[in-house]
Queue: 3 jobs
Job 1
Amino acid sequence: MPKAKYELIYRDLKEKIEADEFPYQELLPPENTLIQIYDCSRNTVRRAIGKLVTDGYVQTMQGKGVRNIYRPVEQTAFTIGEIETFRESALRNGQTPRTEVLLFTEITADASLSRRTGFPAGSELYYLQRLHYLDGKPLILNHNYFLKSAAHGLTPEIAANSIYDYLENTLHMTIVNSKRIMTVEKITEIDEKYMDLNVDDYNCVAVVTSSTYNSDGIMFEYTQSRHRPDYFHFQDNAIRRPAT
Amino acid sequence: MPKAKYELIYRDLKEKIEADEFPYQELLPPENTLIQIYDCSRNTVRRAIGKLVTDGYVQTMQGKGVRNIYRPVEQTAFTIGEIETFRESALRNGQTPRTEVLLFTEITADASLSRRTGFPAGSELYYLQRLHYLDGKPLILNHNYFLKSAAHGLTPEIAANSIYDYLENTLHMTIVNSKRIMTVEKITEIDEKYMDLNVDDYNCVAVVTSSTYNSDGIMFEYTQSRHRPDYFHFQDNAIRRPAT
DNA sequence: TTTCAAATATTGTTTAAACAAGTTGTTACC
DNA sequence: GGTAACAACTTGTTTAAACAATATTTGAAA
């Protein structure tokens, strides 16, 4: 339920751009027109446009206007670009998700694990291994570490569905921020076994390591996602800051 | 030369956070204090803080304050995360960059190339192959396509230094926006030859495909960067939008 | 017709103010 | 001591206004 007015304007403009209601490379209506359309102040319109800029949908040009530079992307397979659960991502792309829980244990972080994950030594954690299928194909092997104090009550049944759904809707946690690092690593025997890969074919996987924070500023999750290389697809939009 | 006040405040706070002047997990001074420190309005302070949020440096909590969640990252090798030239990135990480131009030609986009790159068919282009070395090691093999009309006067000598430096400082072009897609691809013979790789070791490379726009909204560059997998490292910070 | 200056249109920055919404601390009351 | 109401503090949203900076159009003068 979005309440903020700028959020509504942002979504409306975004939908219109995606629906091709503004021609590619052409200018959107000027701010003054949008102010009348949406019956709001200039700041509110500008805030909505600012979000479209960071999305890479439009480009503002001082003195000229706001140009539509949105291009639809071909959804090859699995696409990430925001904090989105596997399920959300799959459904958005019209695919059928399934998750298999390979391992569900509780562990205490020792010095080594603490260094690797960033959890304080001695933290009580859930450690899970999960395999994500898309349209029947195993694509992602996840190693999840959840802080027990923040995700208490987690079960294998929940893990087979959506952990985030549980955290957000049952525990009422608010997920805010996720720092991610992408690398490419050599395939392991576990990868090979579960993701149906063959060293003679691909001998690497794409690895996304993420540390996720909730609204209390607590890092409650550390996850390593190992992706089948032939289905890995990550999108990004970068903005160049003016010269220093 | 940053002129905007919010930009100065943003940079000052960012430096202070990186210099550990605010303790990790603690709150920054409240807005009202920052208003006095920087002698500005509340909006201006909030704009600076907003940029720190998207950088993943801080987290705002309504009713509580702004928490520092910045963690320094170990710079393993080559790190991307903004629009940055190879040279800028290398120097920022204290490394020695060198670029070798393998190929410098001028071509006209046919239907196939147009479909692949997004340039209109018939576009006059520069096509370059460049090899980027870091501390003597060949790490990135670039296939660059530049729109001739936007990058006229490009020479192999310029390409061996910094093309962006030429575009920005000589042609006075303003680079604004870059859409990037990351995938993992099978290694090619060219990759193997130039990046000193061995199929028996890694048989994949990390591929970053980028389409870059200037301030006129023109896509003037299409580049495919093929990275040595063992040195590839991409950082990102994602923010979860509130539930729909 | 050409050229230069002024006016107009558009986005960029900053200030000020009011109210909303969430958190924390205090105080009065039982 | 416990609790509930209240006050104080903090961030979130929105409006209004003024001026700056850039691009385009208009119009007057040569």
Note: Helices of chain B lie at 5-18, 31-38, 42-54, 86-92, 111-117, 156-160, 163-170, 189-194.
Job 2
Amino acid sequence: MSGPTLVLMSVGLPPPKRITIADVASRANVSTAAVSKVLRNAYGVSPAMQERVRQAMTELGYRPHAAARGMRGQTYTIGVMIPDVRNPFFPEIIESLSEHLDGTDYQVLLGPGGSDTESQTRITDAMVDRRMDGLVMIAPIAPRRELEAIAKTVPMVVIGRHGRSTEYDTVVDDDIMGAGLIVDHLADLGHQRIAHIGHKDRGPSWPATMPQTVRAEGYRQAMRRRGLEAQIDIVLTSYSEEGGYSAARELLSRPVRPTAIFAGADVAAIGVLEAAYELGLRVPEDVSLAGYDNTSIAALGPISLTSVDQDGHLMGSNAARLLLERIEQKRHRSVLLSLSPTLVPRRSTRSPLADSGGA
Amino acid sequence: MSGPTLVLMSVGLPPPKRITIADVASRANVSTAAVSKVLRNAYGVSPAMQERVRQAMTELGYRPHAAARGMRGQTYTIGVMIPDVRNPFFPEIIESLSEHLDGTDYQVLLGPGGSDTESQTRITDAMVDRRMDGLVMIAPIAPRRELEAIAKTVPMVVIGRHGRSTEYDTVVDDDIMGAGLIVDHLADLGHQRIAHIGHKDRGPSWPATMPQTVRAEGYRQAMRRRGLEAQIDIVLTSYSEEGGYSAARELLSRPVRPTAIFAGADVAAIGVLEAAYELGLRVPEDVSLAGYDNTSIAALGPISLTSVDQDGHLMGSNAARLLLERIEQKRHRSVLLSLSPTLVPRRSTRSPLADSGGA
DNA sequence: ATGAAAGCGCTAACAA
DNA sequence: TTGTTAGCGCTTTCAT
């Protein structure tokens, strides 16, 4: 294979300089203060002046300098911290968030934080340093105290993390319930050896409020409720293809295999599929499989993965609404919004074969 | 299903105010200019003063105000315009981009632009308004003139768009070659009726330089080269699951079906799989299928999709490098970097059955 | 209703 | 090497 091709080209002209409110002001024969007021739809400008200023703005192609505005007023920027850009569930939230903000003056900017505390802190700080008007944190792993410290500085909504805070709003899906839906579904089908694949993250933070912890806990509770306490079987890897793969390699290589696997995320379930495929095991004939998140891949005919739907759309729009309330109406009382998930049964789960009795 | 649960909570304290260089300066008994210099690692500060200032910074927990810095100097922010947050190929580019920037003072912020011109323009303007130091545009659909107008204002690298510009750098994968790899592969297997699913986007821009156009053109060229000109068969929908699905419904319902389908993107190929599944056709027994992008889903055992690999990692790191060169070394000569793709053959393609002779 | 002017936190000439 | 100071583009009192 040939290496990359490289082509050089010419040129370099003097950079044009931007139009400021001063330009607009002089063009419209008004003060800069007047222009500023028009810009903000502030009180105390006659319709006539309004018109003149707007005219001048369009004629000159004026664009407000967001950073400069931010020095005194707002930056009109909403920051969204995203751990793991690859997670196919986040786009749903993000899309709905931006949609909700589309009519407003606010712009959404995404901060790619890694799955470790440091990089999440780094990008979060970066957003604060840029004086964003509000922050949406998607499943952050920082300790609550840290989040609250930031939330004291800037309006904040946390998505996908359980527990409440007085400093920020929370939008969360009831993961206890979601895990229960899956376990009940599998138990109803006659499964007993139901294993769970969980996510363990790095970092010092106590993860009791993280979705993965709550899903595992929901799994435990449901297993007990169904009298399957002795069958509780959790493998902690990560919510990723690799994580699901390695967990499944372990589970499916045992002398007594589980008859069903509940992966805490669809991506992990995909890894399980891969492992099962390699081991020559069929889903659902040899092992039932369920995921979580109901990502679009779960719906695919050849995959047809039973999953739990979280309505990311609703999460996103609510997060946007709550954040705007905090920013514009200066609300300080915090809100906890808990949405209920729904089960989406598909072909990846079915009754275990006759030979698969209890332990 | 019960509706969302809502819980209200209390509190509201006076917001603390931020530490500025003035605070740091007085604490360290130096001028603000000195602090500024330390901040920028600028020339002309004694090690002693360096130390005093850094000390004061950490003691006070000082964080520079990015917007204020931006008013005179840089914002240390790199903006990345992303059309379609759902495209699973982009995360690769983004990850490698951020990685490359990790050691530097720059921060990556992502601008979610939709698949239409307006929303892309909107988010791009927003990034310019925020005085980002550099912009990376991933497969933008704006006309080249528009891109160049922006590039005159701010250092810019365009990814995934063919054609060259004197104003910005380009990192692109050779889509003509990539399409050729697929067609050759299929033709070598004995296929003749090879159909192609393309992407047609909205917007007034002339799309001759867009990847989808080039891939379609590459397909045509390769078909001619292989003497299959009469078999050229392109269905234009979109690079999405739905697009692939509807195109495949059409193609596979014909009296004389193609023996192979080359979808311009893996996501579209996934839609084809879905359609084939619904129609009771097997891949590859009844129809061979190839995608493009080699996304992780293509590698899955149950899917095993033949695809073209683009090395997003290399694209991302090169884009970062080129952008930094433009920003820091003020390079003006533009660069075109063309990477070559590779074929990744998998089980979704095989020789057509005997009964599937030429038209 | 309108405008003059004082900052916001920082950078960069220029002086010392 | 260090400090002084004039902005950057906008918002926001406070007079007019």
Note: Confidence is low (pLDDT under 50) at residues 1-14 of chain A.
Job 3
Amino acid sequence: MDKNEKAFYEAKAAVFKALGHPTRLWIAEELKKKEHCVCEFVEKINADFSTVSRHLAVLKHAGIVGDEKRGMNVFYHLKVPCILNSMTCVEAVIDAQLQSQIDMINNKSDTNINGRI
Amino acid sequence: MDKNEKAFYEAKAAVFKALGHPTRLWIAEELKKKEHCVCEFVEKINADFSTVSRHLAVLKHAGIVGDEKRGMNVFYHLKVPCILNSMTCVEAVIDAQLQSQIDMINNKSDTNINGRI
DNA sequence: ACACTATTTGGCTATTTTGCCAAACAATAA
DNA sequence: TTATTGTTTGGCAAAATAGCCAAATAGTGT
């Protein structure tokens, strides 16, 4: 893997990483519906103003959201909405994972039953 | 946001987080082509056996890959290939980001030029 | 039984991330 | 001008992550 390719993987991973936090993922989904100022998020999330601002900065730095100052507020919008198209697949991952956990529990109790007989 | 919804966002974010590391993202893309044992990755990545094993464990824990022991080797495979479908969009994010950086540089030098006149 | 190979795990340190508080900044209102 | 509101930034401490080494584990072959 040469230097360019490595840099490319780092850039791509950074995008995933930015979405890899529940609050930021939630913010991104909210921004898919419509733009929001920071204060609107602070109301809905139980977190400090500075915390929300930092999360938004992470998303902005990753290139996922953009911001625009209007009056006293800074409005954030989703720059690349397609980034959330994978959500159905992500949900499929979670479902599959949940299912395999259920299977594991079932197999374990089967073993126990067999062990008892 | 109630407890269930919060847990749902945490689970979804965990999937993104798992892909949010260049090595793990590279591994996932390799696994899209075909299954691999750990040793094959160790050869290609310049990292310790234990490091690679841990990265694979993270992907497995997130539900993205599965593993199967055959003989002396453990083979990993991509459980949910659709997770990489978003890659073209991720690349679009990077392109857009790169472009906005170029624009910023251009605007800055325009300002300088105007300032000089 | 022994040695050998592939993999995981425990333990450690260095680095990064998170989230809060307080302070700084910016735009508006009085 | 001062006060006020919305936002960002500096600084800090707690927690999580990454990556290495060494030890443990599991399966194979002798």
Note: The first strand of chain B starts at residue 36 and ends at 37.
